[in-house]
Amino acid sequence: MEFSKTRASGLVRRRVAAGATAGVLGLATAMGSGFWAAASAADTATLSGIVLGVGANETQRIVTWYSSADTAQKIQVAPTAEIVNGEFPATAVTFDAVGAANTSTTGFNRHATITNLKENTGYSYRVGSEGNWSPAYSFKTQDFEGDYDFLFFGDPQIGSSGDIAKDQAGWAETLRYATAANPNIEMLVSGGDHVESANNEAQWDAFLAPDQLRQYPVAATIGNHDVGGKSWEQHHFTPNTDRSAQYYAGDQNTRSGGDFWYIYKDVLFVDINSNSYVNPTDGSLGGDAAHVAYVTDVIKKHGSEAKWKVLVYHHSIYSPASHATDGDNVQRRKDFTTAFSDLGVDMVLQGHDHSYSRSYSIKNGEKENPAEQPGAAEVFPGPGGVIYVTANSASGSKYYDIKKPNAAEAGKPHGNGPDPLDPNKYWYNSVQNQEHVRSYVKVGVKADKLVVENIRSGTCAAPNAAVEKGLSCVNTPDGQPVGSIVDKVTVHPYHGNGQDIQVNVPTAAGEFGWTIDGYNGLVNLGTAQERNGWFFEATGSINPIVVSDSRFSLAPWSISANVSDFKDGDKTFSGAYLGWSPKVLATGAGAQAGAAVQSGYDDQGQGLAVSRGLGAADQGHARGKATLGADLDLKFPNEVAKGSYRATLTITALSS
Predict the structure, then answer these.
(1) SS in 3 state form for 293-306?
(2) CATH architecture of 145-491
(3) Which residues does the UniProt record annotate as the domain Purple acid phosphatase N-terminal (predicted)?
(4) Between vectors from CA 465 to CA 462 and to CA 468, what angle results, nearest 5°?
(5) In Å, what is the CA distance from 213 to each residue of 54, 142, 175, 197?
(6) Tens digits of per-residue pLDDT, 430-474?
(7) Would the pLDDT of 528 be above 60?
(8) CATH class of this structure's domain 512-655
């Protein structure tokens, strides 16, 4: 089980040619053992609360559990295909566990990190020691490149209805349905408030009971009901975590906290403890200011390693129900939103308000585009536009009803005034929903879009603890059954004034395919095809470029371009391998197509690594418009490593 992988593809950095009007066209391509510690033979420790967590990247998993005894323990891992009659093979790998005495209950906590996982492989694992192993559980890795889906869950808050068993049943049913309907999802992300009382282990046992939490990696977020003790930290050991005092609310010796980050495929996730929000009066770093500094540092250091930036924290700042008017959430709107816009955050996932909402594109704490319509199915945020999503209850233990906006706060960017396009809801929310039924959010991470769906995982019927205990329910099971969609939106990223192009490159003998987005975004060359066992090739076309010239001088003009190297993390290959054949798609403005340029693979030349002409017009040309295009031809050696590569094609316009 020895596998190492360089980080997923880097974010395209746009560059502008000096002394010219330049647009940017990004270009991307993708290629298609632990130390053994002996334990006493007499070890009879009881092992419980096993949960599979995310690691620092897709090649890792962190497993956490409780033990009744302070003994040397470990994880044992092997490919599932190598396990015969329940017996782990002699080649199984072990990873030592570390931990300490529990401070919130009796016993001890343990965790260990599984590393060097291979893609597209089923694994089985167990925890404990020789002669005293837990039951074995299984998970499956998928391709470490490309599209994937993950699920986001709001506030199970087991115990908040007053009936742990009913809350557990609703939580288990949501997980059962969601994973059965989406068997290939790759991660479970929580919005916090796993339990009602931070150190109530009966509630934690109920939360951790579903086996899906041992089959899919869990990215746990801390909520205000989790923070009041150490159980949350002892049940969820998170990667890259800073547990400095400024990331805690209260005494870090008795409460859980910390901010952490990880990268899963092409998404940089940053998860913060929003329970700590008060900025110290003496000006020292703490509360929201500390979180902003943390997020800024992580994005500056690691943002280029991913295509998307997603923040997760508990306290929703744009939600529709009881907590929307809380003073601390109003303060977070002031403290967070401009920083998140400046840092290029794409989406924020939140809980806390036990209702569903999807914001408009928010920039610097204000609606970015006043014309964006409520419930739009396609959203195109500009630079700094952020989508905020609040998840409803995943267990049915508690729901909050949607509140009416405050007309007196109309026009106040941090207030809760009405939406001019729909006065019945808050100005910042495109969609609000509360039916008193369980739901979850599915996020599809695509090459050039995020697809967000809020999906019903229940109806008015049991298990639905809050409704069973007398709360009304407005869902109609015939028209709104389990699995029906409450809301769906496709979020398209901003690509500056140019275009991004992407191609996926497989390992040898992979499939070929390409697509081009219909709007001015990513041009995806798909998966390159191996040719004659010597090189890869992918073809496509740039998005058309319209040239408009209405000058009376009838001066000449030209459009040229050059491409950077293709990069995926620290993997790279030369932009010289890209060639093109320019063409005039719509005549006008005297436009003439530039000369074809061969891929450097064919002629050992420089391809588009140096500036090449796309189109031009001579002095005295007619005024008007022309549309220019170019067919792309990418050929490169098959020694290039598998990955999802992007480069930047800078388009420069020159005129007299």
Answers:
(1) HHHHHHHHHHHHHC
(2) 4-Layer Sandwich (3.60)
(3) 49-141
(4) 65
(5) 11, 17, 9, 20
(6) 999 999 999 999 999 998 899 999 999 999 999 999 999 999 998
(7) yes
(8) mainly beta
